[in-house]
Amino acid sequence: MILLAIDTSGSGCYVAIYDSDADRTLGIGGEEIGRGHAERLMDFTDQALANAGVDLLQIERIAVTIGPGSFTGIRVGVAATRGLSLALGIPSVGITTLAVLASQHLRDHPGAPVFVAMDAKRGEAYCQAFSSDGLPASEAAVLSLDDAKAAAALAGGTVVGSAAPLLSGGEPASLVDGLSIEVVARLGALADPAADRPKPLYLRGPDAKPQAGFAIARA
């Protein structure tokens, strides 16, 4: 199966073309852009396709990161995935950033459970426990640092992610939760299109909210 993977959940915008039968990444496009995912995503998709030597019509499935992460970036990635899936008549799947971080750790350090903790700022962390085979062992949640520390202790295993130093009593790190687009692709190939349809995973509401009291009455 030829799969197209998309990650717009953070400061980067990345696309990969992956052959699941050969377990091989055929081509990658993208870079760290900070903002402007909507304007650059299709260009990076064309770049990945060109690097892979694959035509868009050869794609058989699309996988996209669904969060937690950048509110706007996630919306861009999910909307693009849904549009391409509909236009091409192929299935699409959503992969959480927490699952990607767990899988990245287990790829290099197999055999033990993992507790993923991403820095959500405001004294909170996005958290989820995973078993040693990468399956979720708890629901994804946004927790205070104290509650996240207690949850990590209860889950056992290694704590990974940008909030890991905070849970051990350290200072905020400059660590960024960098995701491997190749891991996104591999998880996408294993996902169930019927159960894992792309839908943003928002564990906390957006920072920007409409102001109350300034509505103009209709004539």
Poorly predicted sequence stretches spanning 5 or more consecutive residues: none
CATH class of the largest domain: Alpha Beta
Q: What is the arithmetic mean of pLDDT?
A: 91
Beta percentage is 15-25%
Give the strand line-up of the largest sheet: 3-2-1-4-5
Quick summary:
This protein is of the alpha/beta class. The chain has helices at 37-52, 71-88, 97-108, 145-155, 164-167, 181-190; strands spanning 2-7, 12-19, 24-32, 61-65, 92-95, 114-121, 124-130, 141-144, 158-160.
Strand and helix map with partners:
Elements: E1 2-7, E2 12-19, E3 24-32, H1 37-52, E4 61-65, H2 71-88, E5 92-95, H3 97-108, E6 114-121, E7 124-130, E8 141-144, H4 145-155, E9 158-160, H5 164-167, H6 181-190
Parallel strand pairs: 1-4, 4-5, 6-9
Antiparallel strand pairs: 1-2, 2-3, 6-7, 7-8
Structure overview:
By secondary structure, the chain is α/β, with parallel strands linked by helices. It folds into two domains: 2-96 and 177-190, Nucleotidyltransferase, domain 5 (2-Layer Sandwich), CATH 3.30.420.40; 98-167, Nucleotidyltransferase, domain 5 (2-Layer Sandwich), CATH 3.30.420.200. The chain has six helices and nine strands. The chain has helices at residues 37-52, 71-88, 97-108, 145-155, 164-167, 181-190, and strands at residues 2-7, 12-19, 24-32, 61-65, 92-95, 114-121, 124-130, 141-144, 158-160. The strands form two sheets. The chain has a five-stranded mixed β-sheet with strand order 3-2-1-4-5, sandwiched between helices. A four-stranded mixed β-sheet has the order 8-7-6-9. The protein is globular. The mean pLDDT is 91.
